[in-house]
Amino acid sequence: MRALEWLGRTGLDAVRGAGALGLVAGRTVLGLPRLERRELSRALVQFGYASLPLALATAALAGVIVVLQAGLYIQRFGARAFLGWAAGYGVLWEFGPLLLGLIMSARIGARNAAELATMQVGGQIEGLRGIGLDPFAILVAPRVVAMELSMLALSTFTFLVAILFESVAALFTLGLPLRVFYGTFATMLSPLDILGGVVKTGAFGLAISLVSTTVGLAARGGARAVGQAAASAVVRGCAAIFVLDFLLTSLLAGWMA
Question: In degrees to the nearest 10, what's the CA dihedral of 215, 218, 18, 236?
Fold first, then answer.
């Protein structure tokens, strides 16, 4: 009996959450033509430029780790020449978008939810509505656009840095010449492989911005609600990233096969 009650509550919460997410997405689309440009500029600096050092450091470490892990199996089967393809494919398709999404969910998703929750519990968002301004055009749409642009720009830099560190790690740990690494990378990977990583990164950015915004706007209460919103944005954002990763990997792999 308790299991059925839990199942019913979970189902209702899921439907309620999906409805809130759809409502925020729809209001954001309607607010795009009246998007506040100063808020967009501020969000681009905060979301993209300020996240660049952390994203690049993570990309460098991820590149080295991928080579060390892949090298164990590649050496075992005598396929060192294919390391460039395997490491590049792993970063472009999986590790690059996934790690960048998780970092941005923790760093930007939590901050976005906390800021909007603070405005919500402080009555500032209701105040904007009171003087005839649309909070979605002023606060939400700029953040969604900035997150999407920041994720796509950061993915370009992180992919390049990860591949660079992969080639250097392959040279010093496995003695694989750079021309061999980049040779298999260039001949065995296609533009569609890069497109798959870009599609995933864009989808992750949209999920992080919409989930954190929905959680922030739904906050009720005092300071405790702000903390709960930040924590919930990280958890739900990471869950959305893993679900999207599974769905997109299945769809794109089948389409490109």
Answer: 20
- Give the C-alpha separation, 244 to 250, whole Å: 10
Per-residue buried b or exposed e for 14-29, using 16+ beta carbons within 10 Å of the residue's own CB: eeeeeeebeebbebbe
What's the sign of the alpha-carbon dihedral 130, 131, 132, 136? negative
Query: Taking the model in full, what pTM does it have?
Result: 0.86
Helix pair 191-217, 96-104: axis angle to 10 deg: 20
Both tokens of 1, joined, read: 């009996």
Q: Are 18 and 240 in contact (CB under 8 A)?
A: no
Structure tokens at 122: 């402080």
C-alpha to C-alpha distance for 255 and 23, rounded to whole angstroms: 31
pLDDT digits (tens, 9 = 90+) for 150-167: 999 998 888 889 989 988
Three-state DSSP state, 146? helix
Site of tokens 């959680």:
215
Helix axes 141-174, 52-76, angle to 10 degrees: 40
DSSP state letter for 251: H
pLDDT digits (tens, 9 = 90+) for 105-136: 999 999 999 999 999 888 888 888 888 888 88
Task: Give how far Cα 163 sits from Cα of 89, 91, 125, 145, 202, Å.
Answer: 10, 8, 44, 27, 20
Buried b (16+ CB within 10 A) or exposed e, 145-164: bbbbbbbebbbeebbebbbe
| Rounded CA separation 69/170 (Å) | 11
- Asked whether 162 and 91 are in contact (CB, 8 A), the reply is yes
Report the C-alpha gap between 2 and 15 in whole angstroms. 20
